[in-house]
Write a structure and sequence with these properties.
Blueprint: H1 13-46, H2 50-90, H3 109-125, H4 130-143, H5 146-163
Length: 168
């Protein structure tokens, strides 16, 4: 089993509460920042001066873009947590408890690569299963390939969404 720090779905309530509280605080601070930027952008546009209007439009775009980034990130985080919870409940989470670790706590590269090769075989046998995609995403993450981990997790979320009762 993975440690609670790696998988908040393990039920470590205090750790999960700290993380959710921290994220909520960041979202509130960002919301305040976005409102301030939006007001500055509107004030610049209201001057009617061409340079200020151009700058105001640019400043106003920043909070709009920021809200979109925060919303999509939070939505993805909830989707990933749903999958982690389901995998944990089904007993399908990768067991990394016995793998050798670096002093930083990361799994050693050779061990992570061996785990990835095992999971890759599972994935290749059933690539349309959200569970094998989820496990591949976790294995990519342990191996340090964050880009592929995100791609596989996104695919796992899409497949799981279609796998839910009433989704078809």
């Amino acid at each position: 089993m993975s440690t609670p720090a790696e998988n908040p779905a393990d039920g470590n309530g205090r750790e999960v509460f700290k993380r959710v509280g921290f994220i909520a605080a960041l979202v509130v601070v960002l919301g305040f920042y976005f409102v301030l930027l939006g007001r500055i952008g509107i004030d610049l546009i209201a001057t009617g001066k061409p340079a200020a209007v151009g700058l105001g439009i640019g400043v106003f775009i920043l909070p709009v873009l920021g809200v979109w980034i925060v919303a999509t990130s939070v939505r993805a985080a909830f989707a990933h947590q749903r999958l982690a919870r389901r995998m944990h409940e089904e007993g399908g989470e990768l067991d990394v408890s016995d793998l050798p670790r670096r002093p930083s706590g990361r799994i050693e590269k050779d061990a992570a690569d061996a785990l990835f090769e095992q999971v890759k075989q599972e994935f290749e046998a059933d690539p349309q299963n959200w569970r094998t995609n989820y496990r591949a995403a976790r294995a990519y993450d342990y191996a340090g390939d964050r880009t592929r981990a995100r791609e596989m997790m996104k695919r796992a979320v899409e497949l799981e969404r279609g796998d839910r009762p009433g989704a078809r």
